[in-house]
Amino acid sequence: MNPYDDPLQPHSHDPNPEPPSPFPDFRLQLPDGTEKLVTLDNLYRLPAKTLNDCYIVSTGHGTTGPFAFSGPTLLTVVQSFFRQVDWHTIEVISGDGFGTRIQADELWGNAAAEPMILAYAIDGKQMSRHEGLVRLIVPSETDDALRQVKWVERIRIVPKQQPLGWYNRTLDLLRRWSFILLVVAITISLLSLLGLWWFSGG
Ligand SMILES: Nc1nc2c(c(=O)[nH]1)N[C@H]1C(S)=C(S)[C@@H](COP(=O)(O)O)O[C@H]1N2
Ligand SMILES: [Mo]
């Protein structure tokens, strides 16, 4: 794939000013590929966190803020739809093809650090779609705004291992069972030789 087509490898710092669609709902993709629709209502029902004094630092075109962003933590959202804890990477991707990759220990890690949130409010008011609703806020990122993803469209919990197709699955099974298959084959051959010898009146 051309690296410039990969939303997780942003090649430009120029922010997109226009929302890609009017709808703030997004999809959460679980490791097995199934998807859950996450609505604003789902987010309102979760405990909200407010992050004060957030700045959007835009390289080359100024800094805006301070803003207070509110919404549930990213970890809360993921956990409310997916109970397992053995994932280690998630990808947050916007409708305009912008995104960031997050490691689990960034969410679990440091209890003292401000958590990442999925913001639906700014300065105590409902955030407009134009302002980025729903927007990922990453407080630890202070030098650039490449992780402050506006218009979240998809959150993907990356499977630990890419699922194999049937061909590779069969090869994989054969590889795992090859020793046992070999032992069984040798045993059968020896038994048939023994049988032959027996019946030939040996
Ligand atoms: N979906 C999306 N999010 C994005 C961007 C973008 O182009 N699309 N640009 C990033 C960059 S480079 C900057 S500087 C900030 C700009 O945020 P603002 O439009 O709220 O000032 O959004 C960040 N998040
Ligand atoms: Mo930027």
List keywords for this structure.
202 residues, alpha+beta, five-stranded mixed beta sheet, four-stranded antiparallel beta sheet, binds the ligand Nc1nc2c(c(=O)[nH]1)N[C@H]1C(S)=C(S)[C@@H](COP(=O)(O)O)O[C@H]1N2, binds molybdenum atom
Set down the secondary structure blueprint.
Blueprint: E1 26-29, E2 35-38, H1 40-44, E3 49-57, E4 63-71, H2 74-81, E5 89-94, E6 99-103, H3 104-108, E7 117-119, E8 121-122, E9 125-126, E10 135-137, E11 152-157, H4 166-199
Parallel strand pairs: 1-11
Antiparallel strand pairs: 1-2, 3-4, 4-8, 5-6, 5-11, 7-10, 8-9
The chain binds the ligand Nc1nc2c(c(=O)[nH]1)N[C@H]1C(S)=C(S)[C@@H](COP(=O)(O)O)O[C@H]1N2 and molybdenum atom.
The site of molybdenum atom has 5 residues, from loops.
Radius of gyration based on Cα positions: 26 Å
Order of helices and strands: EEHEEHEEHEEEEEH
Summarize the amount of helix as a percent range: 25-40%
User: Helical stretch count?
Assistant: 4
Distance between the termini: 67 Å
Q: How would you state the average pLDDT, rounded?
A: 90
Largest sheet: 5 strands, mixed
* Percent range for β-strand residues: 25-35%
Low-confidence stretches: none
- Distinct small molecules bound, one entry per kind: the ligand Nc1nc2c(c(=O)[nH]1)N[C@H]1C(S)=C(S)[C@@H](COP(=O)(O)O)O[C@H]1N2, molybdenum atom
